[in-house]
Amino acid sequence: MKKIIMLNLLLVMSLTCLNGEIKFHGDARVRPRLDQRFDQNGKTYQDFYYLYWVRLWMDAELEDGWYFTTKLAVDGPSDFISKFGAPTYDGIQSWSGENAAHSGHRGAIRFNEAHFGRKTSQFGFSMGILPFNALAEPEFDLHFFPVSKSDIPYLILNNNSAAGFRGYYKLGPGKLRATVTVDNNTGNREVVDLRDQYSTFLNYDLNLGEFKLRPSFIASLGAENMASPMTAGINVETPQYSGFNFQAGVYFTSQQADIEDPANNSGYLGLSDFSSQDSVNYTGKYSGPGLHVQFSRKIGPGSFTGWVDHKIIDMDGITDSKNTTYIWLKYNYPVYKSESGSFWVGPTFRQIRQTFGGIEYIRNKIEVTLHFNFK
Questions:
Q1: Nearest by Cα to 232 from 248, 251, 213
Q2: Which of 320, 313, 328 is nearest to 367 (CA)?
Q3: 2: exposed, middle or buried (Cβ count in 10 Å: 0-12, 13-18, 19+)
Q4: Among candidates 155, 143, 161, 139, which has minimal Cα distance to 309?
Q5: Helix or strand holding residue 140 (H, E)
Q6: What is the pLDDT of residue 38?
Q7: What is the distance in angstroms between the CA of the first residue and the CA of the last residue of the chain?
Q8: How many Cβ atoms sit within 10 Å of the Cβ of residue 39?
Q9: Of 67, 86, 113, 139, which residue is most buried, by most CB within 10 angstroms?
Q10: Higher pLDDT residue, 261 or 178?
Q11: How far apart are CA 313 and CA 32, in angstroms?
């Protein structure tokens, strides 16, 4: 792993030694969390633990908008390395630090992002392991994980990144963006089996006076008997009112492919959350809306952000809908800030609530993020 990293560093340095520039920046977080789960019988399961991560970016800026950037982090859920005092899962079906005591376990870093291309004011393109911003684009969660019990599954499970190609073009008063990701590249079985899976993304950023609009469309394409959902919607940011910034999004997702075995053929499209009981008469078809409402405001020295996501998924052959509501409330308090970096504290409350078949699932995460970043 060290040799691979050094080779990439030498390659980028050789490309930029004449006219380019290399920049390093990164961040580290420690997150104490009280994790609460409640079952249908009123019993509470509670755990207190500490999560941590370390991430390092390297950006190489060449002339005429050409660039290369990479992010080094643990390739595990949401970039987190592990919990304090717990074995470390390194993200590739193996355990790292197996010869150390629990408090000595450490994760291995990998390329969570690695992409290159060109950026100009009129157009741009990039390819490789691309970053996404699912927190600002909640249609990702609705499309890929429609029934997940995770609060922000695309960020947590996909690390806000995917392999593929992206381009943008300034068209009229706004900017058109198009992306193609390679979701599942399984190769051939027997003679020919085109079971690869791709997703296409289209959105258009448009300013209308003080309003900002972002219509979007996502379609996943796969072979027969693979999930192929489509999701469309629009997000609107309003002018500031009484110091508050508001935005709202309305989306709709639909999956009409017949899937004989959702657990084995759904890819990572969130269908694995269906239990065997849910899937008795389930053909793989589903549809439903998603709603996102968000607000933010500067309060004192920091800023407060809150949002609510709600989605309702109806499945063929099942009379009950799966309703999922997610609430996020966070206050960011800046402790220190300079040109070289910053340190802030962010108390946060997160709740996921899901109802289906007369059973209600509730999980609370009460946590504080201690965040240090440097340039």
A1: 251
A2: 328
A3: exposed
A4: 139
A5: helix 139-144
A6: 85
A7: 24
A8: 12
A9: 139
A10: 178
A11: 33
Q: Could you tell me if residue 133 is left (phi over 0), alpha (psi between -120 and 50 degrees) or otherwise beta?
A: beta
Tokens of 336: 């220190």
The two tokens of residue 241 are: 């009112």
Task: Supply 4's token pair.
Answer: 């691979």
164-168, 224-228, 248-252: least confidently modelled range: 224-228
**What residue ranges define each of the domains in the chain, with the CATH number in brackets?**
1-119 (no CATH), 124-375 (2.40.160)
Tell me which H or E stretch contains 361. strand 359-374
Cβ–Cβ under 8 Å, residues 114 and 238: no
Interatomic CA distance for residues 210 and 228, integer angstroms: 36
What's the rounded Cα separation, in Å, for the pair 149 and 271? 11
pLDDT, tens digit, for every residue of 83-117? 887 765 544 444 444 556 667 666 777 888 999 99
* pLDDT of 270 higher than 70: no
Please check whether residue 162 is in contact with residue 147, taking contact to mean a CB–CB distance below 8 angstroms.
no
Tokens 């639909």 label which residue? 254
C-alpha closest to that of 81 among 108, 116, 110: 108
User: For residue 331, what are its two tokens?
Assistant: 């206050």
Separation of alpha carbons 226 and 373, rounded Å? 41
Assess contact for 265 and 259: CB atoms under 8 A. yes
Cβ neighbours of residue 370 under 8 Å, at least 6 residues apart?
Answer: 29, 30, 31, 343, 345
d(CA 267, CA 289): 21
Average pLDDT, the chain: 82
Contact 80, 66 (CB under 8 A): no
DSSP letters for 11-72? HHHHHHTTT-EEEEEEEEEEEEEEEEEE-TTS-EEEEEEEEEEEEEEEEEE-GGGEEEEEEE
Positive or negative, the CA dihedral 138, 142, 143, 149 is positive
Distance, CA of 51 to CA of 55 (rounded, Å): 14
Residue with tokens 């379609």: 219
